[in-house]
UniProtKB/TrEMBL annotation:
Name of protein: MPN domain-containing protein
GO molecular-function terms, A-Z: K63-linked deubiquitinase activity; metal ion binding; metal-dependent deubiquitinase activity
Entry annotated with the keyword Metal-binding: yes
PANTHER family in alphabetical order: AMSH-LIKE PROTEASE, FI19924P1
GO terms under biological process: protein K63-linked deubiquitination; proteolysis
Cofactor needs: Zn(2+)
Chain ranges of the MPN domain: 66-218
GO CC annotations, alphabetized: endosome; membrane
Pfam assignment, any one: JAB
Amino acid sequence: MSLHTISEWPCAGRVTAHAVTLSSPSPVLFLTAKAPQGALVTHVSVADSDKQSNTEPSVSNVLQDVHISAQLMEDFLELAKENTDKDLETCGVLGAFLVLYLVHLRGFVIHLMPFFPPLCNQENGTFYVTTLIIPKQDSTSSSCQALNEEDVFAIQNERSLFPMGWIHTHPSQSCFMSSVDLHTHYSYQMMVPEAFAIVLAPTDSSRSYGIFQLTEPSGMSVLKECQETGFHPHKEPADGSPIYEHCSHVYTNSNLRFEIFDLR
């Protein structure tokens, strides 16, 4: 099996315009179809449902697997602590690259090869979330608006990353997706079907975090047709399915190396 590390690829170079505030846990990212020795890859379990999300992900859309480090979520929560203590939300953007698995008829050797947007068709591969970008932002107790988004795009473009979704806190609310959250996430899922939203709710005793997606096609259709802004109710999908659901294609991987760019 051919094994590539992140340091061998063009996207691994540091972005000199921004300081890397954190790199964890090791200088090497192993990319294999199975977990390398010593690593732990865990499927993210589905938590209890609420009125807009269900416990059984839909099978209407076949998605590529996504790996993310659980440590990334913990580190983001720590970086958001000052805002959380003030009952202010904090948001960040997730960047990932795609590894396609190509089998070559050279004995029994399997070569793992990296592909980057827009050079691939996103089939038969796995996404690895390796970058968290925390932009300048305006926050309230129930919303968070990213500022200077061109700085985020610059990092993504220089590293050839897919916009894999976003992460944000609910400092004093429960773990759910608000109507504003759904509209924010719609743009990510339109670009990359595998994109997901992470909600961290440290005061929710029943579910401290959730990893969500809009349902396809029902939830996506509702958001596409909705022209309202601010907090507002959404109509139920015509087929009776929920607007959003827990992800079934996301796995935590203890061996993932990641970097955090805090631009605040």
